[in-house]
Design a protein that fits this description.
Elements lengths: L6 H9 L4 H11 L4 E5 L6 H14 L1 E6 L4 H15 L2 E6 L2 E5 L14
Parallel strand pairs: 1-2
Antiparallel strand pairs: 2-4, 3-4
């Protein structure tokens, strides 16, 4: 299992990547999405991070569902995924997080200007 910094520290860092209008726009796009990655009892592993990297490269905007028992574990797992994938955390509601990372090869989500 991978450990990392608390989510509150990471959220302050990630908020510098995406402005509030951009987050609002991405939340609207992500509303109808289904979770692409499901994190189970094993938590965040290197193979999960590799899969997350591949999915972010293909889709750019994804939902991740985390099956953790308590809030601290869930926050730590989400922070580990954000840190490991170098993605921006758009929002987190309950067990579901929305992440965004621009594709290196074919970017197709156009963000509004800051």
């Amino acid at each position: 299992m991978i450990t990392c910094t608390p989510l509150k520290t990471r959220q302050m860092f990630m908020s510098n990547l995406l402005t509030n209008p951009q987050k609002r726009y991405l939340k609207g796009l992500a509303h109808d999405l289904r979770p692409t990655i499901l994190v189970g009892a094993k938590g965040v592993t290197p193979s999960l991070l590799a899969e997350l990297d591949a999915v972010l490269e293909q889709h750019e905007l994804i939902k991740v569902k985390v099956a953790a028992e308590d809030r601290e574990t869930r926050d730590a797992w989400i922070a580990a995924m954000v840190e490991g994938s170098q993605a921006g955390l758009v929002t987190r509601i309950g067990n579901t997080a929305v992440m965004f990372r621009r594709s290196k090869n074919k970017p197709f989500v156009i963000l509004p200007k800051a």
